[in-house]
Queue: 2 jobs
Job 1
Amino acid sequence: MARILVIEDNPANMKLVLLLLRNVGYTALCAVDAESGLTLARAEKPDLILMDIQLPGMDGLAATALLKQDPVTATIPVVALTAMAMKADQEKIMLAGCDAYIAKPLSYMELYAVIDTLLVASQAAALEPPFLELP
Ligand code: MN
């Protein structure tokens, strides 16, 4: 089962997300700020990252941009968890390199659906031989 890193500073949100992930069998790793999240991501190479945007110190957008610039972590799908739902914010989230975003309050069905879609897509990309060209 996939390993998912959750970067979230709000204890209630963290508790909820961990519960939802573990309920369906995912292994969850957690960090309460961007700096420790980046360190964990590089060390553990999780299959997916759930990234809160509003974090103390470095925010989730800056952290995502760093993850996407680092070859070790660049292919890990990042899902932004955000209270911001305005159009301009969606653009900022995508520009930072996030693969998807989920607006808070979290819907567990949406969370599972987004995770599922991204894990299937990244597994397919990993299996695809980059050098093979079919006629
Ligand atoms: Mn937060």
Job 2
Amino acid sequence: MKKFYLTTAIDYVNNLPHIGHAYEKIAADVLARYWRSKKIKVLFQTGTDEHGLKIAKAAKAAKKSPAEFVSQMVSKFEQSWKNLDISYDNFVRTTNPGHQKKVQDYLIKLQKARVIYRGVYSGFYCIGCEEYKTESELEQGRCPIHKKTCEKVSEAVYFFQLSKYQKQIYEIIKSGKLKIEPESRCNEVLSFLKKEKLKDIAISRSRVSWGIPLPWDKKHTIYVWVDALFNYLTGNHSQEYWPADLHIIGKDIIRFHGIIWPAMLLALKLPLPKKIFAHGYLTVSGEKMSKSLGNVIDPDKLVEKYGADAVRYFLLREFSFGADGDFSLARLEERYRADLANDLGNLVQRVLKMVQKYHVKIIAKNNQGLTGVEKDIENLKFKTALDKIWDIVITANQKIDQAEPWNIAKKDPKKLAQFLNQMVSRIILVANTLAPFMPETSKEISIQVQTLKIKPIFAKK
Ligand code: MSP
């Protein structure tokens, strides 16, 4: 039986989940549901990244121990994914003892492979990125992403010989053996590999205590990014399902996944993931979401007001998955009203009401999905897929307006039955194709078609 191992990034738990995190989990969930419907054995893994300075600092600010702090935060993430109907199979917490043990084992294997050496790192550190920065990367001493002054540090560390893999990784990506999508992101990684000389990376920290102890030198903890990347191999059944068929991540963390991760896997002589897809970044009114700006959009609030399916639909219909997007509540309201309540909701209501009123026998059956949409989903072209589904919805409404079935009813009941069956067949087609995107709505439409217990699918807001 064919398998599909699909992962998302694991989220830092220093802050509450926002729609950027949700966007990624929703997209992955659509794929997981889609492949399951094709009878493929899916392992869908997500989780939380709980170590490092950033988290330790947040715990301190909340006057909690890191362990207590992360546990509380993790339950918020789990709750949000439940609210959004995210059907993951594994949820890896990097503070799980099982994960920690396996990461330590991988580190020992790396050491045995002689790709690790001891040294001292002196330079700058951005806590937001959890990454060392070179002076040339900084803008007036600040991280260009987090706009915060980077600390000057000097610490004893162990290095991983990343530099050794520069040429090999370039070839692997260039040849398509490891696919990076969209193309623009692939080119970004390739041109980085071509222009910059890769430096060895520090994989341990002696200044950071909130982390997994380095097995052969307990004064050090394992660098949080190394700890995090190994989650892809530490979940339940992750090793059996390895290599990952797809890592879904945001564009900001492409180098960790496209360069550091493959290098560690090469050192361990393990197969490489087949594909990495880096989605775009969501902003709010053109601004990065941040606590200090107070513009963080809470997915729970959206789900409470509009329902999980409407939020899932909106995020994937409004933005092309590979591109950046600007979130707007007004656009969500507009799409809720126009696309969901009007186009889809009305189509189902008016057709089923006529079926009921004119006592039409439903013979329409449709177990198929809409052709073309499957490839779009497989290629993570969710917006294109939804555009196609809505074409069917909109043209069905137009056909009804033109055909005026209420007039046919008076003259030709047979023709009416035929026409309404055609429309029901379209509705079933739409419901089937929508299933991975809007699982509850799809189910609800199917039930209403079968029972004719008709009620509005999207109440007017
Ligand atoms: N913990 C690391 C990932 C380790 S994976 C081995 C991390 N965490 S994060 O919480 O900052 O981000 C988690 C995921 O959410 C990343 O893929 C990131 O790109 C994505 N997003 C975070 N903010 C986002 C937006 N504003 N918009 C879209 N995606 C965003 O990075």
